[in-house]
């Protein structure tokens, strides 16, 4: 096909030249034809007459050579044609894929934006995790404070427990926006309530003045009670202890019960009054907060009143004169001892025993 097309093109050259004859005076005036034109001008007339035949022969030779080349290399031409078709088809596929890619670019852009935001968030979380890992031991110590406080309380190390509570209270005020710290402070408050209960329970037991001083000092340091409330709690707890002692006495034997009650009041009521005065009456500032307000006197008179009421109720059950005499002697001795703290009630005893 290519050779036929070349042959037709060659045969059409004279006609095309004739058509262009009117348009250009010298059709071979182009720069590409100048060497051939120069060669023609050097020929003789005879040589010029022979030139068309020579050109025809050369054309035939060239056409044959082209045919031979086409025959020898037809496979290459076919492969080139197939390659061209394949490339054209591939280019069309590329166009479709490129169009789809262009349509997906906005989605890709938004996906990249989301990825960047997610990466920033992950990076921040990673920094937090690194900080947490770097401070793991410190954080672990903080989280173990409630358990450590509970151990200190159970072992009676109240000063150490209160030191831990003060530390947690301090960091809670420094970091009010951290849930972990606030949760830790809440657990410590629960532990402090357990400490308060244990301290009050100790006040309900048989303890001496030094232990009472330590317990009240701890309660003051906790700060859960005002000074007046602390005084009232102290007297309530000591009264509960006295009541427990009296409840343990056997009421079936009236004489033994009254004798035990008189001995209890003579010894322990005296101690409670002295303990109260030693703990709470050292303040000489005269401030209303530290003023007793007659609390101790009212409480002591209540105890003496209960003592006398019990005597009035139970003495009629004692019929032996010797027992009554011994009981009167014990009561007088008890009233005389309590007189050292301002609770002498000996003048109130004879009317009770006379009845």
From TrEMBL:
Keywords for this protein: Golgi apparatus, Membrane, Protein transport, Transport
Membrane topology according to the record: Peripheral membrane protein
Subcellular location: Golgi apparatus membrane
GO cellular component, one term: Golgi transport complex
Single GO BP term: protein transport
Keyword Plastid listed: no
Keyword Protein transport: yes
UniProt cross-references to InterPro entries, sorted A to Z: COG8, Cullin_repeat-like_dom_sf
PANTHER family listed in its UniProt record: CONSERVED OLIGOMERIC GOLGI COMPLEX COMPONENT 8 (PTHR21311), CONSERVED OLIGOMERIC GOLGI COMPLEX SUBUNIT 8 (PTHR21311:SF0)
Family note: Belongs to the COG8 family.
Name this polypeptide is given: Conserved oligomeric Golgi complex subunit 8
